[in-house]
Amino acid sequence: MATTKKTPRAQNKRINLALQGGGAHGAFAWGVLDALLEDGRLDIEAVSATSAGAMNAVVLADALCDGGAEHARARLAAFWRAIADAGERYNPVRPLRDIFGRALPIEQSPMYWVFDSLMRTFSPYQLNPFNFNPLRDVLQAHVDFDRLRRTEGVAVHLCATNVETGKVRVFGRNELSADAVLASACLPFLFQAIEIDGQHYWDGGYIGNPAIFPLIYGSESRDVVIVHINPIVRPGVPKTAPEIMNRINEISFNSSLMREMRAIAFVTRLIDSGKVEASQMKQMLIHSIRDDEAMTAHSVASKLNPDWDFLCSLRDSGRSVAQRWLRANYAAVGQRSTVDLEEEFL
């Protein structure tokens, strides 16, 4: 039975979440969400999300429709356990294990190099003509999309890229489905484009990772907490081909977010300088939960690594960073940005 939208407690603060995509690295955001839910002082009004972030978003929103914070924590854990189980069954590039049973980096798997070469030579229409995607079964088993569409609760905005127009498509509450999530997470070298209502979509990270504008125009709260997956800063100049491709991937999947942050910084300057009345434009308060140092330790190849131990290590990293962020910044929520937009994004 659908429940009504929870009334925030007086002492709680309302926020919006922006969840980046990044394959298996989305387990870092799982850890962040776990810590925020455990803390219990923030109420989530809306989530804008892409790719793995979209998966976290629909599991979170559906779980909160069906129960409270502890229920949502359990549902997220069960979802990522199912991702690991599916990877154990279907992933062709699972990490090797050494003689002590520890998972070695996925780059050391001979199958990864074979798979990588195949992806650069053949399209998913050739390699996967029946368009098999194990993520569909996991999503349908762990998310009640009918309930999510009809129940008032956390507003969810999922970002995908229209293949033909190159424009961002944002799927709202009434459009949420397994197809919408898969469209948001459709890496074109791995999966055939997802068709919805005659339009075809690829991963939303190319054009909105995630898009912030749905939270500006569609939410009452001015606070946006961005959970970063792709490092913004990576010290040093990449020299090897894998290092170069890795950094290109990070820059391209951050570019749309950087542009939106510049626009928000511009509006903030106009309001702060008195050139525009605060009543004429909405001044957003931006917060950032990220750990570039930890995430730069993982290559782009590890985004294909669903090993449970690896996912749990990312979860633990996300929990730790979120707990530190809460201790340092909770008081500022609703009052001011905790990110220097000009220093970070201009």
Give the termini separation: 48 Å
Mean pLDDT: 90
- Low confidence ranges: 1-8
Q: What would the principal axes of the Cα set say about the shape?
A: globular
Work out the strand percent.
5-15%
The number of helices is 13
Helix/strand-derived category reads alpha/beta
What's the β-strand tally?
A: 8
Q: Write down the secondary-structure element order.
A: EHEHHHHHHEEHEEHEHEHHH
Q: What is the rounded Rg?
A: 20 Å
Described by strand count, sense and barrel closure, the largest sheet is: 8 strands, mixed
- Helical content class: 40-55%
Structure description:
With 346 residues, this protein is of the alpha/beta class. It contains 13 helices and 8 strands. The protein has helices at residues 26-39, 52-66, 69-90, 110-121, 124-127, 134-142, 145-150, 178-184, 213-218, 241-272, 292-295, 308-329, 341-345, and strands at residues 13-19, 42-50, 155-162, 168-171, 194-196, 199-203, 223-227, 285-289. Strands 1, 2, 3, 4, 5, 6, 7 and 8 form an 8-stranded mixed sheet that branches. Strand 1, helix 1 and strand 2 form a beta-alpha-beta unit. Helix 1 (26-39) packs parallel to helix 2 and helix 1 (26-39) packs across helix 12 (308-329). The longest helix has 32 residues, at 241-272. Mean pLDDT is 90; it is low at 1-8.
